[in-house]
Design goal:
By secondary structure, the protein is an alpha/beta fold. The chain has helices at residues 36-42, 65-78, 91-103, 133-141, 152-162, 165-180, 207-216, 232-235, 237-250, and strands at 6-8, 11-16, 21-25, 47-51, 84-89, 107-113, 194-199, 220-225. It has a single domain, classed as Rossmann fold (3-Layer(aba) Sandwich), CATH 3.40.50.1820. Strand 3 (21-25), helix 1 and strand 4 (47-51) form a beta-alpha-beta unit. It starts with 5 loop residues before the first strand and ends with a helix.
Length: 253
């Protein structure tokens, strides 16, 4: 099932369901489709809200992680969303963390999966062969444990991004910003329940990154996903949803 992207003022978002808000933040090469299974599972009992991050529309000098966090703050205030559970993959996890640290919002839980913010083996800086479809296909497949997760549609999306000069310049700028924004000294201020759903075979943000997050975020716990890469919600959507649902229930959310 596809969902309508609403355009309102300067914002673009998907907003389905009612109840406790779940705010889903996608990664640097991410898209709405990355969260399809989560939307389908939780829209019956939760308000599922996905801001479309302005990765390619910010001025180049403002293309950085702090400005994405400011964007999230603005859109959530605009939509009156408080006491949300933030769920972020890759760059989306990094944005969630910086949003919490800098904007002190009302939120009641945090879920990170393959999050940057400490270390990442970023894809953005490793694309010298912009014109080679096979090269992009191989690099995209490496993101997952099962290369078949990289569908032709997904590879086409990444290929189009990498071969669009405006977009790839911003991808590189955002990747450099993510590297600069190391949050190791600031994570101790996060005192809300935090779930780390992590692929044991993630080569972008390896398992040691998850363990470091666990050490630095006081109320955090880990749920490992075996034979899984950087995006558990895509490789194992049913398992991801079961882990998330059990944790939300356990925390009374």
């Amino acid at each position: 099932m596809s969902y309508t992207i609403v355009e309102e003022k300067e914002f673009r978002y998907v907003d389905v369901g009612e109840g406790q808000p779940l705010v889903l933040l996608h990664g640097l090469f991410g898209a709405l489709s990355n969260w399809q299974g989560v939307i389908d599972k939780f829209k019956e009992n939760y308000r599922v809200f996905i801001p479309i991050l302005p990765l390619y529309s910010l001025p180049l000098l403002n293309t950085n992680v702090p400005n994405l966090a400011k964007y999230v703050d603005k859109i959530l205030k605009f939509k009156g969303i408080e006491n949300a559970v933030l769920i972020g993959n890759s760059l989306g996890g990094h944005v969630s963390l910086l949003y919490i640290i800098n904007h002190a919002p009302k939120y009641c839980g945090l879920v990170l999966t393959g999050s940057s913010g400490l270390y990442e083996n970023g894809m953005g800086g490793s694309y010298p062969k912009r014109g080679s479809y096979d090269y992009i296909k191989n690099k995209t497949e490496e993101t997952f444990f099962n290369p078949e997760t990289a569908t032709k549609e997904l590879v086409d999306e990444v290929f189009d991004i990498v071969n669009d000069r405006n977009k790839i310049i911003r991808v590189l700028a955002m990747s450099k910003s993510a590297i600069r924004q190391n949050l190791s000294q600031e994570l101790n201020v996060i005192n809300q329940p935090t779930l780390l759903i992590w692929g044991k075979n993630d080569i972008v943000t390896p398992p040691e990154v998850c363990e470091e997050f666990h050490k630095l975020i006081p109320q955090s716990e880990i749920a490992w996903v075996d034979r899984c890469g950087h995006a558990p919600m895509m490789e194992y959507p049913d398992l991801f949803n079961d882990i998330l649902a059990d944790w939300l229930t356990k925390k009374g959310l």
